[in-house]
Amino acid sequence: MELSRVEIAKMIDHTFLKPEGTEEDVARLVSEGLKYGFHAVVVNPYFVPLASKLAEGSELKVCSVVGFPLGATLPEAKAREAEFVGRAGAHEVDMVINVGALKSGLDDVVLDDISGVVNAFRSVRPEGVVKVILETGLLTREEIEAACALVEEAGADFVKTSTGFGPRGATVEDVRLLRRLVGDRLGVKAAGGIRTYEQAMAMIEAGANRIGTSSGVKIVEGAPE
């Protein structure tokens, strides 16, 4: 399987979430997003207004993060954060699941946490896309199975492997498992440690239909023209 530069670019969420990021970094990210035709740029909540202004009038989506990177934020705070970034211009959000609640077997807590974000975000962005980061490197197979079921029940759109700040990033095995669990009912986003065209293609072949990476330019330039 081989994808052209244009084809793979449309599957990439071009990401910059470092805490030391500046307005200049966000401007560069959006400029690259427009130049290479990425699906979206992903920025921290504070920078959503700037990214939205810079991307205005283009097809480039703005995505932000919720409860990032630990997922242990109060559910009410996550919901409000989702609402705020939606009002500020975000088309998509990547929220972190409450990992501790999941591992404690508190499925109702996890379900309510995800549902709160989905409902709050779509109250201001009816067509908004919600991706749920599982942080698969911290979970057992059984916990991943439970998480996928809860994400689907809550009405979110994607399951996502990792924050990029956890113990490890995406693996082909993780992506293959997620795709098997959600079928074609949800999207699968692979993120964390994906830095080359070959790595991105391995994730896509395993079932990912979105790639989260801070190496979007390198990946696209490594693709066939």
Number of domains: 1
Give the C-level CATH assignment: Alpha Beta
Any low-confidence stretches, pLDDT <50, length ≥5?
Answer: none
Task: Name the shape in a single word.
Answer: globular
Q: Oligomerization state of this entry?
A: single chain
Instruction: Return the average pLDDT rounded to an integer.
Output: 98
| CATH topology category name | TIM Barrel
The SSE order reads: HEHEHEHEHHEHEHEHEH
Percent helix:
40-55%
Instruction: Let me know the CATH homologous superfamily.
Output: Aldolase class I
| Major sheet details | 8 strands, parallel, barrel
- Determine Rg (CA atoms, Å): 16 Å
The tally of helices reads 10
Percent strand equals: 15-25%
According to DSSP, the number of beta strands is: 8
Descriptive account of the structure:
By secondary structure, the chain is of the alpha/beta class. 47% of the residues lie in helices and 16% in strands. It is built from ten helices and eight strands. The chain has an eight-stranded parallel β-barrel, surrounded by seven helices. It is globular, with a radius of gyration of 16 Å. The model has no long low-confidence stretch (mean pLDDT 98).
